[in-house]
Every structure is written in C-alpha cells, then in structure tokens.
Amino acid sequence: MRVSTLALAVILAGPSGFSWAQTASEGEKAAPQEPAVSNSQTPVASRYSFNRVDNGFIRLDSTNGEIAYCSAQTSGWICQAVPIDKASSAASNEDAQKGITWLNRSNANTTYALAMRNDAAQKHGIVTLSDLAKHIGAGGTYQFASNAEFYARSDGLRPLQDLYKFEFGRKNVIRMDGGLTYQALRDGQVDVALVMSTDGRVPAYDFVVLKDDKGFFPSYALTPVIRTEVFKQHPRLGELLNALSSRLDDETIAGLNARVDVGRESIESVAKGFLQRSSLL
Asked: Does 5-109+218-277 match 112-209 in CATH topology?
C-alpha cells in the first residue's frame, strides 16, 4: 500500500490550504490561530468536529469510523500538531484506549516565530532571538510587525520580551493583519516580523527565522496517526508513514508551501512530486 498524493497534501497545506488540528496541553501556550485557508480548500474544521478530551487537548475526533487512517478526505490520514513530549505522550496514551495509534513525530514544527530579511540578519550578525535582544539593548532600533492577537495575548509579545530582556518600544510595534506581516518585512517597511515557521513565504521572500534559543515558543511537531485496526490490517502503512514523517522538517515544509502559495502550483502536483522523490509513490 502506498501513501496517497492527497495524504501529503494534508502536510503541504499548513498555511496554504488546510486548517491544522492543533493540540495544546493545559498550561501550555495556546496553539497559533494563524494559518489561513487558500487554494479553495475547505478547512478540516468545517468537515469534522473538534472535541476537548479529558486531559485538556483539543483534537480531531478520529474514533467515529468516518476516518480510516486520518485524512482530509476521510480515506487517507491526518497530521496533528502537538506540543513535544508531554502532550504527544498523553494524547498517544489516551488515543491507544480509543483504538488510535500515534506513529513517529516529524521534525516539522508549525509555530509562531520572528523573522528578518536574510541580508539584514547577516549584516548585523543576528541568528538568534538573544542576538536581536543584544542589538536592541545596545541601542538598536527595530520595527516589528505583529498581528493584533500576539501583541495583546498574555503569552505573546510582552512575555517574549520579558524572557529575552529587551523591548521593541511601543512606537516600533506595528499591528496589522497576520498575512500582511510578510509583505511589510519583504518591502522593508519593518525590520522584524511575526511569521509562521513553515510558511512558504519565508523561503520565497528570503527571510531567516531567528532561532528561539531560550525556548519561548511552544513546539508543535507534525505527527501521523492511524486507527489501530487499520494498522494491524496493513502494517506496511505504518512503515510508509514513518518514512514520510522522517523526511519532514521546517525547511522542507516551507519549501513545499512556497511552491503552492507563491509558485501557484497545485497541492496535488507538489505532493506527488515530493512523494516520488522520496520513493514513497
């Protein structure tokens, strides 16, 4: 059994054409609400119901038999973004009791991040958020584009600045729609922007994501899940999905998203090409 082209389309979607099922544990920072749906794809949230389970996770209900392996089309598979270790372990254990098996986590992490234009970051030697904080602390002025939510939320800009011990300054924080932060950074209207780490515009616009060296942003690792009864019937499927998961990281997902969002290639053709190059199709 081979992984279908549409299965990878679930992965490619991220900010471009699919609404991810995010899980966040109680007490963890909330999952980003950002990714918009494009390419005329229907958000998964409008097709399937999300439920809050006992341990506090919000996740797609894959136990009602409508989803065989977990897919946008009910016959493939879905990927859930989960906070590393604590949440994935708890969700995995709970789902095992419901007949759902979690496979291997990938290194693809769709979360909030701060980015700069690559040439500017190189010019000032800024690689990490600590580097940025050091430059601002030494008197540097950087204009920052943020969406209104991140600016105001209790686990957003203020605690980020507190952790890294710097402050952009109110006059240097420009609030705008989340999708416009990329354009503002690309066009030189700001120096730093809030982005999604796997958004296709990051590589397309030659941005560099600043390393979160103090671990402020929560990690949401893309993970395939499969109904246990199906896994037992088709064990090879687990091997293929794990092989696919091992090939995914932020750079790969962002590059694929760029071909869809910026290059305007179809999700299906980009997915098929990636699976073929990965010897999974």
From this structure: yes
Q: What pLDDT, on the 0 to 100 scale, is given for residue 92?
A: 77
Spatial separation of the C-alpha atoms in residues 100 and 93, rounded to whole Å: 9
**Which of 7-21, 75-89, 134-148, 258-272 is most confident?**
134-148
CATH topology of domain 5-109+218-277: D-Maltodextrin-Binding Protein; domain 2 (3.40.190)
What are the backbone dihedrals phi and psi of residue 274, each rounded to the nearest 5 degrees, phi first? -65, -45
CA distance to 87, 184, 232, 276, per residue, from 272 (Å): 31, 33, 26, 6
HSE at residue 106, side-chain half, CA atoms within 13 A, is 24
Pick the CATH number of 112-209 from 3.40.50.10470, 3.40.50.300, 3.40.50.11810, 3.40.190.120: 3.40.190.120
State how far the Cα of 123 lies from the Cα of 109, in Å rounded to an integer.
Answer: 27
Structural contact between residues 65 and 74, judged by C-beta atoms closer than 8 angstroms: no
pLDDT (average), residues 27-38: 36
Q: Where are the domains of the chain?
A: 5-109+218-277, 112-209
For residue 148, how many other CB atoms are within 10 A of its CB? Answer: 12
Q: What does the pLDDT read at residue 109? A: 86
The two tokens of residue 150 are 């991140």
Q: Which of 90-94, 123-127, 181-185 shows the lowest mean pLDDT across its residues?
A: 90-94
